[in-house]
Amino acid sequence: MPIVTFSIIAITVAVSLMAWRSKSLLDALIYWPPGVSRGQWWRLLSHGFIHADGAHLLFNMITLYFFGTVMEQVLTSRIGLFGFVLFYLTGILVAILPSHIRHRGDPRYRSLGASGAVAAMLFAYILLQPWSMLFVFFLPVPAILFAVVYVAYSFWADRRGGGNINHSAHLWGGAWGVAFMLWLEPRLWQRFLGEVLAPLGM
Fold first, then answer.
1. What are the Cα distances from residue 45, in Å, to 33, 48, 94, 123, 157?
2. Active-site residue 115, yes or no?
3. Quick one: which of 57, 114, 158, 184 could link to 51 by a disulfide (CB 3.0–4.6 Å)?
4. 19-22: long-range contacts (C-beta < 8 A, 24 or more apart)?
5. How far apart are CA 67 and CA 132, in angstroms?
6. Looking at 46, 99, 115, 154, which residue is catalytic?
7. Which residues touch 98 (CB under 8 Å, ≥6 apart)?
């Protein structure tokens, strides 16, 4: 039973619900550059446990459920339950650091949501199963094709700017998931390339 993934989902849902009811709690947990500069380092992690609205929370938690449960089974045999928790928490941290560097002097900037850590789970899974089918808006899409489109769109949207979505966090979270898996097992890269190229006859 993927107890860690279920626990993370339960905690995230509970904290998000409490933050929606208490603006002071949301303000205390959200990533806000001046707060971090004043020594409120917890914001670099706590922002990953609150969400903007129900749709934001639901999308992240459903994605985490599908891919986190698989990756928990894969990783806990190698790094244990505590290691899996650290992998998730580090995904939140790594995903926000580039935004922190870019916006550290901007008092108007805020960021929240578990998207960076969820992207880490998703891309770690894609590295293992590149041709598995993901259902995107109920349409089956090969995981590797989804990854290419996801990365390309996130790069474009991040450079374009505007909107309320931290696309940089998606990119860096995904990169963390891949980097961690390759650090854990370097031979995965050759296996990944072999599986990606095999259907193409290469």
1. 13, 6, 10, 20, 24
2. yes
3. 57
4. 19/50
5. 12
6. 115
7. 168, 172
